[in-house]
Amino acid sequence: MLQRTIFFLFLLGGVLVSLVAKADDNPRTFILLDKGWGYRPVSDTGLKSSMKQVTVPHTWNANYIPGTRSYNREMMVYRRDLEITPDMKDKRLFLYFEGVNSSATVLVNNKSVGSHKGGYTAFCMEVTDYAKQGTNKLEVWVTNAYNPEILPISGDFNIYGGIHRPCHLLVTEQDCISPLFYASPGVFIHQDKVSEKQAQITVETMLSLRGKKQGLKVRTTIEDAKGNIISQNIEQNVTIENVKQPFVIEHPVLWNAKQNPHLYKVIVELLDNGKVIDRVEQRTGLRYFSVDADKGFFLNGKYLDLYGFCLHEEVEGKGSALSAEDHERDMELVKESGATSLRLVHYPHSESIYHLSDENGIVLWTEIPMVGPGGYDFCGFINTDGLKEHARQVLKELVYQKYNHPSICFWGIFNEIRTNYDNAEPFARELHELYKEIDPSRLTTLASCDDPKFYQNCSDLMAWNKYIGWYGSRNAPETAGNFFDKAKAASNGKPVAISEYGGGANVEHHFSMKENDVKPSGQFHPEEGQTYIHEGNWSAFAQRPYMWAKYIWVFADFQSAIRNEGGKPGINDKGLVTYDRKIKKDAFYFYKANWSTEPMIYITSRRFTKRPEASVQVKVYSNLRENTLYVNGKKIGKQKSDSLNRVMWQNVTLSKGENRIRVEGKSKAGVIEDTCVWYLK
């Protein structure tokens, strides 16, 4: 099953579901179970103990407390009423959870319905035989405690406990399109062959039939972006639970990343004697792609330079319990930077970010949570049956749930699994083969931090996490370039990429740097040191189109309880945006100047407001042809941007007190400028 390219849109994604979502002609109903929840520790067993009222999504680890590095990894019980109304009589009832971290047991009226391991994939349970008409008690027992059989077993990020993604009650007729197959939508769109001339497609629908199994029909309709019907296929007299329907689209409009992220709509309806008894709508992007070891990534036959961020799913004050608006804000920042790709680390993300990537043409690498400790102790893989079975389960859930998003081009096998514990190579190869068995259309990859000789036979593509300029060598351009030239030579024709690079920055820390002599584990992480590292690395990577992707670590600062550095215990500050998303660091604008076509000028070190010396450097990131500097209204000079879209004026003299710095340049739209104020003691 599912042996071809598939794209789908799962309507249970948070951005697409309202409180009660039901079309007039569709008896399928989604009820968002966001309010009315309470929770308390399972250790609090008093019959009269009160529960703290919360709204889902929720995590009990949301708030970062400055100066601390610990967080609770324990078991909590969530509880709410579940109302089954008279109009649900003789219907089927399903509970659909988009993510509960990191394992959950669901009970209805004190009876166990089932359990699920893993906090980053959805699960669906039928509760038809457990719920009664009227008010029911719904409980979810949740734990994020360490468990050697639940991924991840290590990692440089926090595991946020709770029902941290939306959950729903799904109501259907007795015969329906199945939501139970790995919590997938039950509709899969196989792209058998796609080109500019023609797209050959098979739509596969999985049914769950509990009523009559005769006289049913499956009607599938494909519409273009304007709602025009492109094609329709009706399968008559359906008696089996797996239906495949072929389609041909002549001269399709291809999903072409940011240039034209075109999406079709696929509507699948189950009919009984002409009446629609279930309906699922999905969007589809048609595309083909490849990677060349010497030339890089190609989408629809044309080269596309993939560069962007690694993205963790968390925000200050919320942890991983994000809203649709949080995801939309992050996507707007990604778009502002000019990025073409994201690596979703280190686990399957919320459905919202996949939808947004589809809509905005962002190419994705997404991965399972098999994560090593990086430079810390212990390991991310132990060779036990329990852990391996969980890895297989999460992989299947990831692929089937996200299978049809056109933005996804790469499936990730692991991140930084070192070779000093159990040998992970045989199992990594097994996971690669499992990915290819389910979905041969996409490419597998992995993120290594070991010597290039390891893991060469475990994936289609290779990538490395290399923090050159931050850990180890300070000569980023030469060292980074040499490493990847050697890695390419050692990879025997397998394409290579950089999966993580960067350095830390606290926006309150600054210095007038001559070179980067910051200690990564120290408490001083000046913003200028981060830009130095990124400028050096990018100067090497931009000259190597054979690198199939370049991913910055990381989009935004995030919590990591094992860290104590940069003046903020418990925070990894390598983000190009602050944890609260309020400040875009200088390095963000370096990439905007190099990636975005939007005319821009940005004065760096703008937060270094109190200057100890009169003679300063004024450095600007600008994608304009020429830039003019003024200090206190006096013209200092005009310069052209260099190959990295930088402009640097040396030995600029400040006056005592306030100094107004202004840089301007001309674009096609007119004059643009940037200003800041520095003070000389």
UniProtKB/TrEMBL annotation:
UniProt-listed InterPro entries: Beta-gal/glucu_dom_sf (IPR036156), DUF4982 (IPR032311), Galactose-bd-like_sf (IPR008979), GH (IPR017853), GH2_Domain-Containing (IPR051913), Glyco_hydro_2 (IPR006101), Glyco_hydro_2_cat (IPR006103), Glyco_hydro_2_N (IPR006104)
DUF4982 domain mapped to chain residues: 615-670
Keyword list, A-Z: Glycosidase, Hydrolase, Signal
Record-annotated Glycoside hydrolase family 2 immunoglobulin-like beta-sandwich domain positions: 187-287
Domain called Glycoside hydrolase family 2 catalytic: residue spans: 294-592
Keyword flag Plastid: no
BP GO terms, sorted: carbohydrate metabolic process
Span of the signal peptide: 1-23
Cross-referenced Gene3D superfamilies: Galactose-binding domain-like (2.60.120.260), Glycosidases (3.20.20.80), Immunoglobulins (2.60.40.10)
Record Pfam families: DUF4982, Glyco_hydro_2, Glyco_hydro_2_C, Glyco_hydro_2_N
UniProt superkingdom: Bacteria
MF term (GO), any: hydrolase activity, hydrolyzing O-glycosyl compounds
Glycosyl hydrolases family 2 sugar binding domain residues: 54-171
UniProt family annotation: Belongs to the glycosyl hydrolase 2 family.
Name assigned to this protein: Beta-galactosidase
Organism: Bacteroides thetaiotaomicron
